[in-house]
Specification:
The protein is of the alpha/beta class. Helices cover 59% and strands 10% of the residues. The chain has three domains: 134 residues, P-loop containing nucleotide triphosphate hydrolases (Rossmann fold); 63 residues, Helicase, Ruva Protein, domain 3, CATH 1.10.8.60; 127 residues, Zinc Finger, Delta Prime, domain 3 (Up-down Bundle). The strands form two sheets. A five-stranded parallel beta sheet has the order 2-3-4-1-5, sandwiched between helices. It has a two-stranded parallel sheet with strand order 6-7. The chain is globular, with a radius of gyration of 23 Å.
């Protein structure tokens, strides 16, 4: 079955009784692990129970193809339902596990964790079409999903944020769910319960985004600073930042910039900047103003199109994602440099 985004939380907390296998996949490895853990905890209270929980790597099945079937059919000592956590799955392993997904050997639940997969891949289709299977895609947190995750977590701890603090934090949260959770945990430790967080507190709690900040790349690229754009790319590549999440950050920034430039044509730049929600972080405001002065709406549309083509190339052609990202950022930075010298 397909699990719609709006139904994921309910599905994970109360999985269907007939569910025997579930594929959780996507570019956000942290989110994949988080959702897999939620589903696992709905089936087994103690994930460290060796009698009920088995963790397998795909290499285990390559060496012993019948292992998955045996584990699913095994009766756990002491009762309860078996849980098999399967990791390292890729699109090339569909045939290896197809029989057990289509025809379960027992009532044990298989939770398969995978990286990025095409929605129309054989692996995804196999789980979606199975009468006892399901597939859940994980997309990188960004924009509203980041804000929702932050708001939900802090609400549970009865912590409130000033608007500037909220804007600052959201702009510094990454596209990886595990990293985002880590940053939010820093806030919780810093402020404690029943507190209120202002901008100064937020900066002190999580710092100024560090050397691997996607913001560094986004602003250097959109300003036409090719040297610093390359340096930021080097840091992000070394930190194994997902190229798709960087591309989407670039698209989001350029789209926001285009909206400001369009509004500035009728109302002026300052009122246009004042209308942005959430507001531009104060340390980036000067650079954003500079970008709004050098770019035109038409050129920004071309730059957005360039980044969109980069995302499509990464997803559909299997090209080196980092190389695609480098080329796209260089093209946008070069266009900004051209605009500056006109």
């Amino acid at each position: 079955m397909k699990v719609a985004p709006r139904d994921i939380e309910r599905f994970l907390s109360t999985p269907p009784q007939e569910l025997c296998s579930c594929l959780i996949y996507g570019e956000d490895a942290g989110q994949v692990r988080e959702l897999a853990k939620k589903l696992a905890e709905a089936v087994v209270d103690d994930l460290n129970d060796p009698f009920r929980v088995t963790t397998l790597d795909i290499s285990n099945l390559t060496a012993d193809p019948s292992r998955l079937s045996d584990e699913q059919a095994a009766m756990p000592f002491g009762g309860g339902r078996r849980l098999i956590r399967l990791r390292g799955i890729t699109g090339d392993h569909a045939r290896l596990i197809s029989e057990i997904i289509q025809e379960p050997s027992g009532d044990g639940l298989i939770i398969a964790e995978a990286g990025p997969l095409r929605r129309d891949s054989a692996m995804v289709k196999m789980f979606e079409t199975s009468k006892t299977g399901a597939a859940i895609p994980c997309y990188a947190d960004e924009g509203r999903s980041l804000a929702a995750l932050l708001d939900q977590t802090l609400k549970q701890e009865n912590i409130s944020l000033t608007p500037d603090a909220r804007s600052y934090i959201i702009n510094r949260l990454g596209a990886d769910r595990a990293a985002t959770r880590s940053e939010i945990e820093k806030l919780l430790l810093y402020i404690g319960e029943n507190g209120k967080l202002d901008l100064e507190d937020a900066v002190e709690a999580i710092g100024d985004a560090g050397s691997t900040s996607v913001d560094d790349l986004v602003y250097a690229t959109a300003t036409g600073d090719i040297t610093n754009s390359h340096r930021a790319l080097d840091r992000l590549t070394a930190a194994n930042t997902q190229p798709i999440s960087v591309i989407r950050s670039m698209i989001g920034h350029l789209t926001k910039l285009r909206a400001v430039v369009a509004k500035a044509e009728t109302s002026g730049l300052e009122p246009a900047l004042a209308s942005i929600r959430p507001p531009i972080f104060f340390k980036r405001k000067t650079a954003f103003q500079e970008q709004a002065r050098i770019w035109s709406r038409q050129r920004l549309s071309l730059a957005i199109d360039r980044m969109l083509r980069a995302e499509i190339e990464v997803k559909q052609t299997g090209s080196d994602a980092y190389l695609v990202l480098w080329k796209a950022c260089y093209d946008v930075a070069q266009a900004a440099t051209t605009q500056r010298h006109r």
